[in-house]
Amino acid sequence: MKNRRGFFIIRILVFIFVLPPSSFSESIHRVRIDNADYIPLDELVSVFGLDHSFDMISQRGRLYRKSHYAVYGVGLSAFLVDGRLYKSSGAAIRNRGRIFIPEDAGESIMGSFDPRVRLRRGADLLFVERIRDDETAPVEKKKSPPSSRDRICFIVIDPGHGGKDPGAVGKGGLEEKDITLKVARYLEKKIAKKLGDLRVHLTRNNDRFVELSQRTDIANKMLRKSENGIFLSIHVNSSLSSRISGHETFFLSQNPTNEDARNTAALENNVVILEEKSKSAPKTYDDVDYIEAMMITTQIQKESSELADSIQKGMAKNIKSFGSRGVKKADFYVLRGVLMPAVLIEIGFITNKKEARHLRISSHQEKIADGIAEGVKLFIKRYNRLLKMN
């Protein structure tokens, strides 16, 4: 009897200690930086067996695992995870040669890359538990959270060109860069008056050269959890035909509205020639940048289209001397990678003699700014209405 009881106890112990558990656990260190919880990216890469690339020039990194991907940038609180935008309360940082990302952003990446993952916080460690690959029990796939709208808290105004880049040049030496800066300054004041609770930032406030990617970074670095913004890039158009006049607003798309839209984008994108000759590391806008630009959520593209429509209506109401050329879409480098509603506004044609005269006049510049501000106000009103519905 005793032998049978002993044999039974041994069988129980074998069952408990020899048979494999249904899950295993690994851990990642939790680090406190500036009163926020971070995790070392190299530990995340190691635990999940991720492929990781990092560009020292752009300070941007990419994570891959099978069909999953994530894109991050040092200094940015926004992360692109499997085609959706995740905004953290903190930004990715570099510290003593290592990259750290906010803990909540790491959790978003882990949950998206591996639906079987379960996380448990310890005092100094984040425990990662995953169901074994050979586990036969069905696992409910995690669904991505529905797209949500965050409150608009800031507006970035981008006066096109500047410094060694004059932009389009009209008769008498009239330069696009001077007009866009003056209109941007008027617009800053108009928005402060009409929408005083919003922060307004200019990508340049004087005659200096700013690379296209830097303009995008300025806007994206202002993003925070539960906060959204608007990006307005102001330009002056030109044409081989001196008869063409009027204003038009563009949003980003890989499929230009027409050949005119394609040509306008090509003219504005020519600034990369100056960037590649600069003393700083050369910037390229290659296929990878293009693919990532097209990864931006359909919600952002839809909101950008609505913003463009509102601005065109505001300008058409204010500017009677020259007609509206409507809303169009094209592939502008400056709009690539902007993680918020973004448009490029062509406020008139410097090659049209009559319109060029108006573009020189302060009162006309102020009218343009007022029209854009009215359009922004209209867009935010619509946006907030949908925000309440959500």
Task: Give structural attributes.
390 residues; alpha+beta; Copper Amine Oxidase, Chain A, domain 1; 2 domains; six-stranded mixed β-sheet; five-stranded antiparallel β-sheet; elongated
Quickly give the structural class: alpha+beta
Strand content: 25-35%
Any guess at the CATH architecture of the largest domain? 3-Layer(aba) Sandwich
How many helices in DSSP terms?
11
CATH topology of the largest domain: Aminopeptidase
Radius of gyration: 26 Å
User: Within the largest sheet, what's the order of strands?
Assistant: 14-13-15-18-16-17
Average pLDDT level: 83
How would the global form be characterised? Answer: elongated
CATH secondary-structure class of the largest domain: Alpha Beta
The major β-sheet equals: 6 strands, mixed
Query: Helix share of residues?
Result: 25-40%
Q: CATH superfamily name of the largest domain?
A: Zn-dependent exopeptidases
Q: What's the structural domain tally? A: 2
Show unreliable segments. 7-24, 136-147, 277-282, 284-288
* Oligomeric state as shown: single chain
Order of helices and strands: HEEEHEEEEEEEHEEEHEHEEHHHHEEHH
Query: How far do the termini sit from each other?
Result: 69 Å
Q: How many DSSP E strands?
A: 18
